[in-house]
Automatic annotation (TrEMBL):
Catalytic residues, chain numbering: 419 (proton donor/acceptor), 438 (nucleophile)
Keywords: Cell shape, Cell wall biogenesis/degradation, Peptidoglycan synthesis, Transferase
SUPFAM superfamilies recorded: L,D-transpeptidase catalytic domain-like, Lysozyme-like
Every L,D-TPase catalytic domain range: 288-461
InterPro entries linked to this entry: LD-transpeptidase_YkuD-like, LD_TPept_cat_dom, LD_TPept_scaffold_dom, Lysozyme-like_dom_sf, Peptidoglycan-bd-like, PGBDSf, Transpep_catalytic_dom
GO biological processes: cell wall organization; peptidoglycan biosynthetic process; regulation of cell shape
Keyword Kinase tagged: no
Designated name of the protein: Putative peptidoglycan binding domain-containing protein
Similarity-based family: Belongs to the YkuD family.
Example of a GO MF term: transferase activity
DNA repair listed as a keyword: no
Pathway: Cell wall biogenesis; peptidoglycan biosynthesis
Amino acid sequence: MRNLLLYTAVFILLVGCNSPSSKPEELPIEQERFEQQLKASNFKQLKLDPAQFKFLNTFYAANDYQRFWVNDSLLLPDGDTLQHLLNNYYYFCTPLNRYKELPSFHDLDLIEQENLITLKLAYLLNDLKEGFIDTVQKQIKPLSPLSPDHLSKFIKEEKIGTWEQNILRHSTPHENFTKTLEGINAFVKTYKLDTIAYKISSAKEDSIQSKQEAKLALYTKGFTDGPEIDDSIYTLALMKFQTMNGLEADGVLGKNTVEALNESNASKYNRTVLALDKWRWKDSLPDKYIWVNIPAYELSLYINDSLKRQHRVVVGTRFNRTPQFTADMKTIVAYPFWHVPYSISSKEILPHLKKDSNYLAKNNYKIFKDGSRVDASQVDWSKIGRNSFPYSVRQDGGSYNSLGLVKLLFPNEHSVYIHDTPSKKFFDKAVRSYSHGCIRCQNPLELAGYILERDTNVYNRDSLDVLIARRTQKTIPLNHPFPVFVDYISVGTDSNDAIVFYLNVYNKDEEWLRLLK
């Protein structure tokens, strides 16, 4: 009986502990302290401004003050991974001094680490989305975090791959953007971001001195283990460097290679920051378009964001620069005449005429005045000056014609167009800036045929071949204009998706690059 009473008392006591009138379960002490400290904006070591505290309070309140990166006693694996990535922000090609004013993780307690990881991640993700240069104010954009709801979505959504891969792919305005960002990510993990601007001696003046200076430059850039290396290792390192800089990998210390070695990796990194921003600046691209990138000497044709064709091109020299612009291709001309620009006829053809009156006939040129043909043999060329050249010059169609066998026209204020060329040898060179400003294209008949076939045009590639075989000049209007973008982005990737730092052939973008230094 006594035992029965004892069991009954214990049962009543247990039931009472779980009755609705009992107190609700209290938050764990660390969770409670986390919420209280955040609401009070009161941390021991972590110093943040009111806007940063407001952002964190908004974010965590919307997530019921859930902690993502720490628990009561330690930094979780995801938090540890993100701390490493956020300490190495250059993995994501942000300006090198972008986050220098933000606190470090050093000596912070777990609650402070949780908040700083969230804040830095929000800044990084927004930077990758919005970019860094304000083109209107011509200044670097101030730090601004990703909105709390977008940050929550990014953190909670199912990840494909690592945190690093997901951050890299957070903003992908174009395939070329993604490839360039992933390419620079691989580069900075392997090579040093040196800041030394070299002045390597000319190999023609002192080959021994220039080689020693090149060895030192390769070492400081991370291509070799030291400056004192034998020539076989030096040559292999130089060839690897040349490939990465869009140059012919011949192991020879030529002018262009010296120019690339003289530029620091930090400078090339800044050019990559700018290249990525340029992709961010673009509005939505059309369903079909041609993109000519001047520093890459390459023409790419896209349909529905898919790369369909690529052609090597020759662009203007540093003195006759191909401009940046956008226009619509409207016509294709088979077997074209070349109406020589006045600047070329007066400055380049006239000196030849003064030396050789048969120069016009030898090169299939004809001259006209007021629309009427002039007999060149009846002109006293010694009396004609470059500033008073009264003639227009036309070169007849044919394989010898400077425009080759086809030209593709997209009316623009610069009178620039794409055309064939008899000078095929230049396409074999890595650096191809040899024209007067127009764009010489390798295999242009294939390009023109591809465009015509997708234009539902009565003419096609076979039609072009027939016209050319008959030596018939024909202007073919397109039914649907084909957009053309002539651009200047000095960093990209190769066919293996490895980063390529093209020569800054026109030394453009200094205004923007100064902001990034």
